[in-house]
Amino acid sequence: QVQLVESGGGLVQAGGSLRLSCAPSGSVVSVGTMVWYRQAPGKQRELVASITSTGTTNYADSVKGRFTISRDNAKNTVYLQMNSLKPEDTAVYYCNARLLVTGFIWKEYWGQGTQVTVSS
Asked: Are 113 and 40 within 8 A, CB to CB?
């Protein structure tokens, strides 16, 4: 059973940096668009950044200029470099990706989430 595995969360002071990583745990045929979402306590899950298989990126206005999404297609891994972190960035960050595991059917997968806490 393929899963998305995230890493890199933690506790950091305001102004600091963290880098999140996410990759499928097993063998996949292909990886489509990869997306980072986050969900803060009491709030709805929101899109943070996305990147297509060809490298086109999209960011939430709240993170533009501070966060950078990238991917390594050889490793099927997506990264989220987070700089100038603010307390309001505190949330559980989730990786999402469309994967072609077998056959011709693309499916959407979610990671288990990684906690990012920014202290003031």
From this structure: no
